[in-house]
Structures are given as C-alpha cells and as structure tokens.
Write a structure and sequence with these properties.
By secondary structure, the chain is of the alpha/beta class. It is built from eleven helices and eight strands. Helices cover 40% and strands 13% of the residues. The chain has an eight-stranded parallel β-barrel with strand order 1-2-3-4-5-6-7-8, surrounded by seven helices. Helix 9 links the parallel strand 6 and strand 7.
C-alpha cells in the first residue's frame, strides 16, 4: 500500500529531521555519475550518497580503501551537476580524516568547494569525534556511519554482522548519542541487528538510515548498482533487486553484436 508523502521542492538536512519527526521514511541511494544521478534524482529519491563504494562499483577494487579524495570530488561533481531535488552527501575517503582533525577539515572543505556537495559522511564514533567537531564548526553538515564500517574492513577481517555482542552494542549506542550531541544531522547504521538499530533510532532525534539494519529505522540506503541488478555476484540478505539489469544488458549487447556481424545493423532506415 502506498503511503502519502509530502512534496518537497528541495531536500535539506532540516527536511530529513522534519521527515523523522513526522514519521516519513527517508529514501537514499548511491550515484557516482551524471547520467545515473539524473535518473535517480528525477525518480524522487530524498538523498543521493556519492559513496566511497565507487571504489568497488566504478573502479573494480576489492575494498573502498583505494579511492582518493580527488576521485571522490570528481564523482561528486558529476552527480551534483545532475541533481535538482535530492540532498547530495559525499563520503570522505579513507585516509582523509582519521588521523588529523585539521586534515579532516581540509578534506571536507575541498569536497564542498570543488564538488558543490551538500554534506559529507564519515565512518566511526568517538575516535573521529574531534574531526567531526572541526568540520561542523566550519558550517559543513556531517552524516555519521556506525556498525559495519567498510573503511575498517582489515581491522574487522570480515563483512559479517556487527554489534551482536552486548559490549559492542553498548559502544554503538554510546557512539550514536555522541554523534547526535556533536551535531551530526543523520547516521547510517550498516549491517547490525534490527532490534539494536530500532533502539538507536528511537533513542535519538536525528534520522537513522539503515543498510542491513531492519525496518525500525528512519530510512533505507542501498547501492544503486546492486538494487537495479547491474552487479550480480553480491547476494547479501538485506539486498532487494528491483531489476535484473545485468541480464537485460547482456542480452541487448549480445543482440547488437549479432546484428553487426550479420549486417542487420544498420538497416536502410538507420543510415543517411
């Protein structure tokens, strides 16, 4: 059953907080280029995340770690040029904020100035608190990210569900409260138990966006290429494929190859 939703001419960080207050779920997808961002924005998405997942999806790396700040700015700039309605959030890549709050601020300023993005996202809790404060003090909106944090994959050693044990769950709750208190406008919770995610969402006033975190949060995010089935090797439980574009594209390209080989393309009407 469809749910009535308010029409927003432009989504801002305040819009998202208002949406949570009114019980309206927040929709969020990734995009990394102009053409895809144009389609996603025109479809009514609330938030577009220019994710460091571009490292995997666009460049073929095994992890998100190799992507650089310059590359993130390139992708973000392409997306921003396409967007008229959605809030554009840009990931700070690995190495651009973890060790030095001053470096974190410089990285965030470069993203905002050079890409035109509307906010930045970074991973971690209390260990990046000073970086978050420094960025927020410059007037740059920050989205947090807790749970499975892909930039720390070599520390975790696995992509399995996080915070199943009481100690880690308690730490995650504390970090979520800290992020709210520090001034973050929203938090992504990745791959944690649904019950814990709901408890976090109910304990703070800022929106909680889930990926593999159940239904009790304030919104959902997926990687666009996974959701539309352009990727086909990735099968986590939380992923719903709304299309099977991999098969459709493979079929179409194979047909094109056949048509060229058999001289069926171009036909008389397709030439000058």
């Amino acid at each position: 059953m469809s749910v009535a939703k308010k029409e927003y001419k432009r989504i801002t960080v305040k819009t998202l907080v208002d949406m949570k207050a009114h019980g309206e779920k927040i929709s969020m997808l990734t995009a990394y280029d102009y053409t895809m961002a144009k389609i996603v924005d025109g479809s009514g998405i609330d938030v577009i995340l220019v994710g460091d997942s571009a490292s995997n999806v666009m460049a073929g790396h095994e992890t998100t770690l190799p992507i650089t700040l310059d590359q993130m700015i390139y992708h973000a700039s392409s997306v921003v040029r396409a967007v008229e309605r959605a809030l554009v959030v840009v990931d700070l890549p690995f190495g651009s904020y973890q060790s030095d709050p001053k470096e974190a601020l410089r990285s965030a300023i470069r993203i905002m100035k050079e890409s035109g993005g509307h906010a930045v996202k970074l991973e971690g809790g209390k260990e990046v608190k000073e970086s978050i404060k420094r960025i927020l003090n410059a007037g740059i909106p920050v989205m947090g990210h807790l749970g499975l944090t892909p930039q720390s994959i070599y520390k975790f050693g696995t992509y399995t569900v996080r915070a199943k044990e009481d100690e880690e769950a308690a730490r995650l709750k504390q970090d979520a409260l800290m992020l709210e208190k520090a001034g973050c406008f929203a938090i992504v919770l990745e791959k944690i138990p649904a019950k814990l995610a709901q408890e976090v969402a109910e304990s703070i006033s800022i929106p909680v966006i889930g990926i593999g975190a159940g239904q009790g949060v304030d919104g959902q995010v997926l990687v666009l290429h996974d959701m539309i089935g352009m990727t086909h090797e990735f099968h986590p439980r939380f992923l719903r494929r709304y299309m099977n574009l991999y098969e459709d594209m493979t079929t179409a390209i194979s047909q094109y190859v056949d048509d060229v080989k058999t001289k069926d393309f171009p036909n008389d009407e397709e030439q000058y």
